[in-house]
Every structure is written in structure tokens, then in C-alpha cells.
Amino acid sequence: MTRRTRRVEGTEIVQRRAVTAVLAAAALLLTAGCSSDDAGASPEGSATPSRTTAQSPGSGRTAEETPPAKGSVKVLRTVTEGLDSPWGLAALPVGDLLVSSRDEGTITRVDTETGRKTELGEVPGVSPAGEGGLLGLALSPDYASDHMIYAYYTSASDNRIVRMLYDERKPTGEQLGAPDTVFRGIPKGFIHNGGRIAFGPDGMLYAGTGESGEEGLSQDKESLGGKILRMTPEGEPAPGNPFPDSTVYSYGHRNVQGLAWDAKQRLFAAEFGQDTWDELNAIEPGGNYGWPEVEGRSDDSRYVNPAAQWSTDEASPSGIAYAEGSVWMAGLRGERLWRIPLNGTEASADPQPFLEGDHGRLRTVLAAGGDKLWLVTSETDGRGSPGDGDDRILELEVS
Fold first, then answer.
1. Is residue 5 part of a domain?
2. pTM value?
3. Residue 293: which residues within 8 A CB-CB, separation 6 or more?
4. In sequence order, which residues have a C-beta less than 8 Å from that of residue 188 and are 6 or more positions away?
5. Assigned domain for 390 exists
6. Which of 171, 261, 290, 395 could form a cystine bridge with 76, CB 3.0-4.6 A?
7. How far is residue 169's CA from residue 152's CA, in Å, rounded to a whole number?
8. Radius of gyration of the chain (CA)
9. Would you say which domain of life the source belongs to (predicted)?
10. CATH number of the domain that 260 lies in?
């Protein structure tokens, strides 16, 4: 399916959230004393830098077998449509999907065979505004026995992580138990709230956070903003973390919204840049990824260079997934799915774009097993141009 021609910037969009987001962003920029095209204070995916191409750093550091330089993507089907500001995605053991609505604060179950949607309930305490709201979802490592859903959301005072019992025996709309706060105190802002959470192969909970528009937080190891956090399922600093009694796992990030592990259990993260470079990073415990001192690659040995980087108009990356030897990265402003073939912790070839402009803004991608991916569009987030049926979950076949 080919998406209709995109509307040019400045055309009126009849969408309540779009108007609200633009007005709020303008107010924020005026308050900060920035020009209207200053990407340093603008919402995700709204920077307007000069167009450049995606880059990889050359040869890998290991002699591992690498996937072919060129791959392919096939859209198998539309799983469901009519979603409102979808953001987080989690796969249930039976194969169905859970999807969060950023602006509505609800979690919906999607039957992947029929596309039928069933609302589990609304998460209390969610305070949506700008890029904040109900964001990432993850299932407990012990979901088979405890039926716990973890969620990252923006409250009136902070960003936090909660867990809720999912009781399928209760009526539709009332199946979520009261939220138990696992972790709180992550800085919130109109922009840069991070929000992706995932349990790693080690059973620990990882969270990507943003610096909430305050750049200095990223280099402050005492702050939770602009970090990747690693904690136990109960929210305590995980054993083996690089800094004593701290959940901080890596720092110097601007806004992390993608987390995924490769076949050798190495962590990768996608990060929004400002004016010049978006990044895919291989995460090292205790690593400093440079923001705001550097953006993209540098010659400064204090900072870890990205595995790959893109101009911000080609990517604005949110979710990532690993499949078939590559990281797959969803682009918001870029409106495309990027394939980054890996050799160890570096890209083994130039990143390859797919689906450019076909389905609009792309928010979340999740491995579905083997060569399959789930892909979530993001046209109803207030910055897109929603068409009939938006937003959707698509099933892809990749290689």
C-alpha cells in the first residue's frame, strides 16, 4: 500500500493534538529565547538541518560473520488500524500484542490474527503533553506466573515506571490492576522524555531517558535525565552497574527511545540528535556518549562514537529491533525503516532505508521471531498528517 502524497509544511492539519503541540512548542521556544527553527529546543523529529546521507564507521572490530550488505523488506499485512497515538508495544506469550496510547493513557490488546482491539484499561496518573504521556511497555520476565505489565509514563511531576496486574477475567476496560510504582524521579519536560523500557537477557529492566530539554543533565551522573538506566524488576540498582548504588548504566545521551539486544546479548540504543546527527549506539557500561559536548562522531576519546549516524531529517529514530543479523530502526521525521547490518558492535555496511514515505511516521518496531517484525506508525501523534485508518500495526518480513 502506498501512502497518499504528504502535505507540505505549513498546510493546515485538522487535528486537535497537532495544533496543541505546535502552540506549546512555540511557547517553549519563545521562553527559551530560541528561533523557531532551533532544533535544540524543538520536538522530536522537527529539526530542519541540511540533508546528508546515513553513514557507517567502516570495518567492524571483530571477525564475526556479518549479514549481506543489502537486505529486503516485505509488508505482509496490516494487523490492525485505527489506533490513537500508539507508542509502546509488547508481545504476549500467546502471540497477541499490547499497545499503549500516549495521549489517551490506555493499553489495548490486539489480536494478531483478526486485528480485533480490546481495551484493558486506562493507566491512572498519566499526564500527556508534548512528547510525554503513556510511553513504553514491557512484560515481566515472570509474566507466565505474575501477569505483570510494566509501563513508563509522564506524571504531573516526573517520568516514572510502574507495574500493573493484567487480569483477563475482569470486564473489558477494567483488567488493569492499580499501578505499583517501581521507579520515579526521572526528569520530565515538554520534550525529550525518553520512554522506552525493556527487560534484557540478564533479567534486568533497562530504561532510556531524555534530558527533558535541559542539556546539562546528560553529563551529570547524579541526574536520571539523558541516561540509560539498569535496575532490578523491583527498581533497585542492578548488580554490576558501573556506578556504586546507582541505576545509571550509560550517560551523555540526548533522548533515547530505542533499546534492543543482538544475538550475542549486546545492547544497542537509538538516540535523537539535535541539528546534525541522529545515532545508533552500542552501549558500554559506564560509557559517555557525549551530549551536549558532541553530536555524532568526534575525535575526543572521552566519548563513545556511534555505530552509525544519520542526518536528523532522514531518521529521528524512535524504536529499534534486532533480526536477521541487523538492527532495524523506525524513523519519525525520516518516515522510513532503516536496516543497519552489524559486524560486532559496528555497522558492517552503510545503513539501508526501506518504506520511505509509504506509511508516514514510524514509531516502534518489535521483533516477532525469525525474520518477522511488528511495525507501528505514528501519524496521530500531533506531528503527522493522519489519513484513513491511521495509526496502524504492520507485519513485515525482513532479510
1. no
2. 0.88
3. 219, 252, 300, 303
4. 132, 154, 155, 157, 158, 159, 212
5. yes
6. 395
7. 25
8. 19
9. Bacteria
10. 2.120.10.30
